[in-house]
Amino acid sequence: MPTRSRTSRRKPSKKSSAGGRAGIGEPTTGIGAAGAEFQRLVDIMARLRGPSGCPWDREQTIESLRGFVLEETYEVLDAIDRGDHEALRGEIGDLLFEGVFLAQVEADAGRFSVADSLRMICDKLIRRHPHIFGPAGSHVRTANQVVEQWEQIKSREQKDAGERRSLLRGVPGTLPSLLRAHEIGTRVAAVGFDWSKTTDVVDKVEEEVAELRQALTESQSRTEEEMGDLLFSIANLARKLGIEPESALRKANEKFSARFEALERAFESKGRSIHEATLEEMEAEWQAAKSTPPSSTTPTAAIVELHGPTASSKKRRNEETKKKQRRLDARAGRAPAEGRRQK
């Protein structure tokens, strides 16, 4: 059967339901509330995967769910970047669901249950925070000391388990490269392998720029190597500044896209196509777009009315309409109007 967009099929309503679910300003509280809802999710997933459950859910594997996990992760990041707390509430639920789904697949194979996963993370958090859960009198007072302690305890645990000790062991190779560079820098900095001052990293960036200029006169492979060194240095500069580089670049992409769309609209308003414009004309409109107040060109959380008719919200509504149509097509047994993801 063709793969359906499962997450869109089960996304909860953003509005309060007749059953009395809390609205965005009314967080669910009370002793055991989170535990009860989590157990409810686990029970729902077990039923969906059960003998009389949903055919689509029953045929999924940890490999087929990989793309959905990644998709939901980026949707969480998107809600954070937009400052959309209502959307974030739902997206966190979707991401948690993917974890429960994966654990249920593993439980069905007799490997482990979601309870085992929860037990492991709870035990790890207690072990790695002795300054909170251990005896009083800990020397740990700052965030940097917490990171150093975390890595030291982790290294000791690896040694006790007979594993090869390495600070960089466990940094996922599948992380986006800027984020991975940031994580590598964070881990080695925990043992003191770091620049002493932020200005030292700036000097390193300038050094790498000079080496890149030189590489341009040599070979493509040499240029690529120096470009990588420059990007790695920039990721570490972001780390020293307390900036997550992947998020910063994502916002820069949004800013550039918004300004370029403004440039396109400017030419359209004059009855012209951007394809006909000269570089000088485009540069003039670009400078005009840059001088426009950010509220009309930059879709960031701090300056965009979350429920206004922005390009982003229109795109999201269009995507939701398409998802609903695909769901109806699937129920009716019709072929979709556009291709579905194949796993």
Please describe the structure with a list of short key phrases separated by commas or semicolons:
single chain, 343 residues, mainly alpha, Helix Hairpins, disordered N terminus, disordered C terminus
List strands and helices in order, with pairings:
Layout: H1 6-10, H2 33-48, H3 55-58, H4 66-82, H5 85-108, H6 114-128, H7 130-133, H8 143-160, H9 177-189, H10 198-215, H11 220-240, H12 245-269, H13 279-291, H14 311-332
In words, what does this structure look like?
The chain has 343 residues and is mainly alpha-helical. Among the domains are: 95 residues, Helix Hairpins (Orthogonal Bundle); 67 residues, Orthogonal Bundle (Helix Hairpins), CATH 1.10.287.1080. It is built from 14 helices and no strands. The protein starts with 5 loop residues before the first helix and ends in an 11-residue tail after the last helix. The N terminus and C terminus are likely disordered.
